[in-house]
Amino acid sequence: MGITNYRIDKIEANVDNRATEKVDVNESFSIGEVTKKNSQMLEVSWSFNTEYKNIGKLYLEGKLTYFTNDLSDKYEEKGENKKKRLVLKGEALKEVSNFILRRGLIEAIVLSKTLQLPPPLPLPSVKIEEKK
Fold first, then answer.
1. Quick count: other Cβ atoms within 10 Å of Cβ 55?
2. What CATH number has the domain bearing residue 65?
């Protein structure tokens, strides 16, 4: 089934310097704590970071719900005793990673406009060629 719900719990953004000719933008995301809610649901903490080198940054943090009829092949337990944690694997890891990356970029585009920063990825543009 896949991701049925997501939310953003934290947004941090700052612009330190607007007087820069060249803008280097790097995005990264991470999957945090994975919690089993019931036999069909996992709750996954995530974060998404957009770093504008020498200009500023955007940071998002939240949770999403992963739902499926059979969780048996979607996660595994790592660690021992008190340090045990759940880790996504296979198709669930792929789905969650793609979701975080896509949603993070969409939110970063909106926030970059609000903060008057360049978008975090090149946006398409129309090129018109003159007829000869």
1. 19
2. 3.10.420
Cα(58)–Cα(108) distance, rounded to whole angstroms? Answer: 7
What counts of helices (H) and strands (E) characterise the chain?
Answer: 1, 6
The contacts of residue 114 (CB under 8 Å, 6+ apart) are none
In a domain, 23, yes or no: yes
Using DSSP's 3-state secondary structure scheme, residue 131 falls into coil
How confident is the model over 69-116, as pLDDT tens digits? 887 888 888 878 777 888 888 888 999 999 999 999 999 999 999 998
- The model carries a pTM of 0.84
Task: Assess if residue 129 is contained within a domain.
Answer: no
Token pair belonging to 40: 């069909």
Identify the domain containing residue 27 by its residue range: 2-114
Render pLDDT for 74-85 as a digit per residue (tens, 0 to 9): 888 887 877 788
